[in-house]
Write a structure and sequence with these properties.
Number of strands: 10
CATH superfamily of one domain: Periplasmic binding protein-like II
Structural class: alpha+beta
Helix content: 25-40%
Number of helices: 8
CATH topology of one domain: D-Maltodextrin-Binding Protein, domain 2
Largest sheet: 5 strands, mixed
Length: 198
């Protein structure tokens, strides 16, 4: 894939030699911060691939959901990856890639609610279908019950309002979808049995 010279955002990334990826690290199988401080997950794997194709290294920038857009506006990272939901507020300030995943939201807390279930302090919780399936694989004592999503949410990558960068990222993703690369990354992340969420 050729590097577009007409993209200010991509030109800046290439000149800096690093792709700064904002991520929360609390949303497996898309992203998860390990106890050692490193990151793993389907979108983390894709971030490494995107950086490699751009000919730069990748650096992960920690963020939290309520500050993700503010951190982006403050230029703390070039692209947000890790199960980022397309919202109207975010779309006013940034571009999104084509959706990487479509799901429905069932609960807002991604970090600790499954521990509450395992500990018996909660009886049931509702979250994204994919996350419920993943957590049921990680915790054999939990069961994911399929129900119809209450909302329709698209997960995508968020970046500068740069049409050439959007074209580049969408073309890169289209190739990843067509080759099965994205699905393999997601499958690996879904089957990963990780320990302490760090």
């Amino acid at each position: 894939m050729t590097f577009p010279n007409i993209s200010p955002a991509l030109a800046r990334i290439r000149a800096a030699g690093v792709l700064r990826v904002g991520t929360t690290g609390d949303y497996p199988p898309f992203c998860r911060r390990r106890a050692d401080g490193g990151y793993e997950g389907a979108d983390i794997e894709m971030a490494h691939d995107l950086a490699e194709r751009l000919g730069v290294r990748v650096a992960f920038v920690p963020s939290v959901w309520v500050e993700l857009l503010d951190d982006f506006i403050a230029d703390k990272f070039d692209i947000a990856m890790g199960g980022v939901t397309v919202t109207a507020a975010r779309a006013e300030m940034a571009f999104f890639s084509v959706p990487t995943f479509v799901d429905g939201k069932r609960h807002h807390d991604n970090a600790t609610v499954f521990d509450e279930l395992v500990a018996g302090r909660a009886d049931v919780m509702v979250t994204d279908g994919l996350e419920a399936d993943h957590q049921a694989q990680l915790h054999p004592e939990l069961v994911a019950v399929p129900v119809a999503p209450w909302t329709r949410l698209e997960k995508a990558y968020m970046f500068a309002r740069d049409p050439a960068m959007k074209d580049y990222v969408d073309t890169w993703l289209a190739a990843a979808f067509a080759s099965g690369q994205w699905q393999r990354a997601l499958d690996r992340a879904m089957s990963a049995h990780s320990g302490d969420p760090g």
